[in-house]
Amino acid sequence: MKKYKKIYIEITNICNLNCTFCPGHKRALKEMSAENFKYVLDKTHNIGENFYLHLMGEPTAHSQFDKILKICSSYGIRPNITTNGTLLAKQADIILSHDVRNVSVSLHSFEANSITRSLQNYLGDITNFCKKALGSRTVVELRLWNMSRESLADKDSFNYQICEFLRENLCLGSEIYDRINETFFAMEQNRKKNFRLKENIFLGMSEQFSWPSLETSPNEVCKGFCYGLRNQIAILSDGTVVPCCLDADGNMTLGNIFKDDIENIINSTRAKSIYDGFTNHKAVEPLCQSCGYMKKYLQFKKI
């Protein structure tokens, strides 16, 4: 059976924030039980290289988060986690004790919400986690996926304040701004970039993209390419299998891992149509046709 570079498993679609940049979803709120998660890993651990415990929802808010990570360890899997960072102080020791591979913290979550905590308090918990992670095998990526040159030129902007806090609290030099400017130039040649702040701590930068939506889809086959079903698949909290991590509502359902054989799912007629379409540089699904990430990808690929 084909092996995927990335398999996304949505352990919960419930979030403790309501970010303005997130499309949300219309599905019933649901946590994947630890037992069901083990079943999913049992069916997929041999066909995936890297496992990501998110799609929608805040993974560190899962009521059995510790047990989920223990199950990953039992399969020899070092999972990747994307988080808004609000619960890192609570979950830090659990994350590091289970040798999580990567923790990506969406720092722009603060600006995208009406959080009662101060920015300094929020960032303090995150930089404390970074300090705990130093010397471990866990890589921490502090993400600013809403970057623009203006946001750093304006000293009142959240991005500037965040970078200043990181510089001071992680004991970084003023050259961080030179590195950011260099990264902006590199972003003109690629979709996103990151650079090392210290040891295993990185700052990831990207400009914001628009999530795919059936409401904005032109609903006609268009030029495009994506690694969905080529390098990645995603499994929603109820077991629904979809081609990629941006299908928030499961609009491109291929099957359900709790009801169908995973090999039959990824070899289904719909899956083959999506895969063959992108092989021929065409987006055949309406949701794909509206995907800002796919269109952003096209900026850097001659197709």
What does this structure look like?
- With 303 residues, the chain is of the alpha/beta class.
- The protein is built from 11 helices and 12 strands.
- The strands form 3 sheets. Strands 2-1-9-10-11 form a 5-stranded mixed β-sheet. A 5-stranded mixed β-sheet has the order 3-4-5-7-6, with helices on one face.
- α1 runs parallel beside α2 and α4 crosses α6.
- The radius of gyration is 19 Å and the shape is globular.
- The model has no long low-confidence stretch (mean pLDDT 89).
In a few lines, what is going on in this structure?
This protein is of the alpha/beta class. The protein has 11 helices and 12 strands.
Key words describing this protein structure:
303 residues; 12 strands; globular
Distance between the termini: 28 Å
Mean pLDDT over the full residue set: 89
> How many β-strand runs?
12
What low-confidence regions span 5 or more consecutive residues with pLDDT below 50?
Answer: none
Tertiary shape: globular
Beta-strand residue fraction: 15-25%
Strand line-up across the major sheet: 2-1-9-10-11
What is the chain-wise order of helices and strands? EHEHEHEHEHHHEEEEEEHHEHH
DSSP summary: helix tally = 11
Largest sheet: 5 strands, mixed
Radius of gyration, CA atoms, in whole angstroms: 19 Å
Approximately how much helix is present in the residues?
Answer: 25-40%
User: What structural class results from the helix and strand content?
Assistant: alpha/beta
